[in-house]
Structures are given as C-alpha cells and as structure tokens.
Amino acid sequence: MSINSYRLFQFFKYAVYALLAINVFVFWREEFLAAVLQFPNGVEAAQIIASFPAAIDTAAWVVLLLMFELETYVLEDDQYSPGVTWSLQGVRVVCYVFILYAFYGYLAKLGFIYAATPLADVSTLCALVSDGWSYAVDLDEYVELTTANCASFTDASTFLRFDAMPAVVDLAGMSDIRHLAWVDVINAAVWLLVVLVLEIDVRLQEHDRYKGLALRLSYAAKLVLYSTLLLAAIFWGFKGDFVDFWDAFLWLVAFVFIELNVFEWRQEVEDARQQEGISPAS
After folding, report:
1. Which of 55, 65, 209, 251 could form a disulfide with 28 if both were Cys (CB 3.0 to 4.6 A apart)?
2. 110 and 14 in one domain?
C-alpha cells in the first residue's frame, strides 16, 4: 500500500469512527423528544436507561471501538506497561457495564410497547385533537394531533394507547413498532456476541493461539453474527428508518476495520516468526 493510499485508508477509517460518535447525539435528540412526551414531569434516574438506550448504547460502543483500535492497531507490544494494560481493561469494563445496561433498556422499551392497551370509545383520531394527544408514526417518534393532520395518519377505527402516555397508534402501526423494537433487541444481543468473539480473538492472539480450530470457529461464528446484523440493517432500510440503517451500516464498516487490524496483527506475528526461523547463514 502506497503512502497516499495508506493515509486515505486511515482517513476513511477514522471518518467512520467520527460519524458513529455523531450518531450518539442523533439518537439522544430522537429519544429526548420521545422522553418529553413519555415523562412530562421529567425523567427520573431509574428511567434514564429506558428513555435513552440507543444513545447510551452507542456512546459506550464508540468508546469500546476506540479501545479495540488502540489494542489491535495503535499500540505496539512494547507499549503495554502494567498501567496501560489496566487502564484499557478498566475502560472496557465500564463500557461493557453500560452496554449491558443499554441492552436492559431495549428490553424495558419492548415491555413498554407490549403494555399498550386498547383505547375505548374512540373511533377516529380527530376526536383526540383537543386533548393534546400524539400519534406514534414510528418507534420513538410521535407527532402531535391537530385538526390539520389528524385525518392523514390512518383510517383505522381501533387504536392502542401507550401506558401512562397521551399517545396512540393503530394496530398496523403497532405491529411495525413492535417489529422495530424486536430488531433493536436482537441487534443489541448479536453485537454482544460479536464483541465476545472478538475479545476471545484478541486474547488468543496475545497468547499466539489464534489459529487452527480456534480461527475456523471464530470465522464461522462471525459469518452468522455479521450476516444477522446485515439483515437487521436491511430491515431498517426497507422500513425507511434511515438513522438506524445508517448507524447499522457504519458499525459494520467500523468492525470490518477492527477485523482487518486483527488480521494484520496476526500476519505481523507470523512474519516475525518466519524471520526468527531464518538462520544467519541462509
């Protein structure tokens, strides 16, 4: 790889990382607007994770991604002092705590969605205009009902109300929202498995055991996991949820970079071993 192409590759890689960091604020804004409606009296500490799972999850993953970048690419073997090693591991543990916390948030949000109940004595959205109701056009996206828009959302006569929240949706809309919520849960769970496999890869590589059966099992597991993540991204694309699709696409690209780092690291170890095996006489 020439100097120019190498620099271009690095620029592209870190540009992807930067875009993922920006997505933290995109998700926070989206979830903040939904939280204002869901918790009109303010979000309590115990409700933070149920209100902002995507923002918290993305922030923790961005930091974890940078930890993988440091460990698999930036830092050389002779730079791993005890202080550096413990610092990296400490940050990683904190990231995993928040990632698991966010996964619980996705589950809590799924439970909140399934807790929706039928709205009695209402057969048209326009009947709710004067009472400050909103309509759920998507997961975490609500539009206040007005006389100008109430007839444009649906022609259904049966609605579901979200628990303790002045927001409704028709049955078809609820089906779509539940599908999106399930994809969020599945996507988060699969990413946990991806990072588990990657952690095992890194530890095996550190001990020069990332080869043979371990290497083949890792490849097979990642094929299934990354394929599942790709299907989730495609689902979001077809549903027209551009933010989730774009975020999923960027994360797949970002972890391709990490996989390339691990591959290059492994090649360097193999090349060094071969060089050590060459005698001075040869």
Report:
1. 55
2. yes
pLDDT in tens, 173-194: 999 999 999 999 999 999 999 9
The answer to whether residues 79 and 96 belong to one domain is yes
User: What are the C-alpha distances in Å from 223 to residues 171, 228, 230?
Assistant: 36, 9, 10
Task: Indicate the pairing of strand 159-161 with strand 167-170.
Answer: antiparallel
Verify that 189 and 134 share a domain, yes or no: no
Query: CA triplet 177, 178, 184: central angle to 5 degrees?
Result: 90
Are both 203 and 136 inside the same structural domain?
no
pLDDT one-digit tens code per residue, 256-270: 888 888 777 777 766
Task: With beta carbons less than 8 A apart as the criterion, state whether 141 and 30 touch.
Answer: yes
The verdict on residue 220 lying in a domain is yes
Residue 58, token pair as written in the block:
């993305």
Q: Is the pTM of this model over 0.90?
A: no
| Residue labelled with tokens 């988060």 | 188
Q: Which domain holds residue 14?
A: 3-115+174-276
Residue 244, Cβ density class (10 Å: 0-12 exposed, 13-18 middle, ≥19 buried)? buried
**What's the pLDDT tens digit per position in 31-44?**
888 887 777 777 77
Runs of H (alpha helix) within 115-170: none
| Two tokens, residue 74 | 């930036």
| Residue burial 19-31, b: 16+ Cβ < 10 Å; e: rest | bbeebbebbbebb
Whether 153 maps to a domain, the answer reads yes
Domain for residue 282, yes or no? no
